[in-house]
Each structure stands twice: as C-alpha cells, then as structure tokens.
Amino acid sequence: MLKFIPSEVYAALSFRQGAFPDFDRLAGFFLPEAVFINNKGDVPQVKQLHTYINMVESLIDDGTMLSLRETEIEQTCQVYGKVAQINSAYELVFSTPEGVFTRYGVNLFQLVKCDNRWLITSMCWDDRPDETLHKQLPKGAGLHKH
What we know:
Blueprint: H1 5-13, H2 23-27, E1 30-38, E2 45-48, H3 49-61, E3 67-80, E4 83-96, E5 99-114, E6 117-128, E7 144-145
Parallel strand pairs: 1-6
Antiparallel strand pairs: 1-2, 3-4, 3-7, 4-5, 5-6
C-alpha cells in the first residue's frame, strides 16, 4: 500500500551497530534511475540510487556512521492517477564516533505506478536538529499519524 512506502524505506535504511542497511530491499522501492536530493546544506547534493547506496556503505565501512534509525512521524499523500507525492516527516537518530545525534526533517517522495507497483522516482529532503520542518506539513485530509 502506498502510504506504507516511507516507513518501509526508513526500515531498510536503518541499521544497528555492526550491521548494514538492507540495500537490496531499499533499491526495490525505487526506479533504477531514481535520484536522491539532500537539500539541507547551501547547495543541493544530488545522487543516483547506486551512488547514494555506495556513499552510505562507505560511511559505515570507514566507521563514520555506526548506526542509524529513521522513523516516520506523520505524512500527507496526494495521488493523481499513476503519479503520487508523499510528504513524510521523520525523526533520524544516528551514532558516530563523536556521539548520538537526533535530527528531524521532511522527505518528499515522488512516485509512479508501474506494472501495478508504486516506485519512487525521487526523494528529496531537508532536516534540522529541531522539529520546525515537520510542523509545516499541512493539517487535515490525507494526514496519517503513526
């Protein structure tokens, strides 16, 4: 079901210390040409699916990232025929050699329906150390709280 895709993506990305994300499961939610756009800095960082996975693997391999847990707080979803957008507010808790950090953000997932499956074409996000971004999600119809 469409509304569960963000939670499934977060579960595939999450991992405990000494383990890895489930990259095969993660890739299954995306078109092979999908893009990841990190827009939390001064300049958007755009990566293809395989490049994003390689980057996360490198951060784990070199000990920069020790664990990660991403969970959905709430979402809105709009469907227009065979295209959809999900705005997903999340909490991200990750550990590095310097300590444990928490960030809050919003992922925008754009999806297409292909062969009776919803696949993500792009995922872009911004996040902050406080909860200001997810409080900007529109309230009302389509809101799904966890």
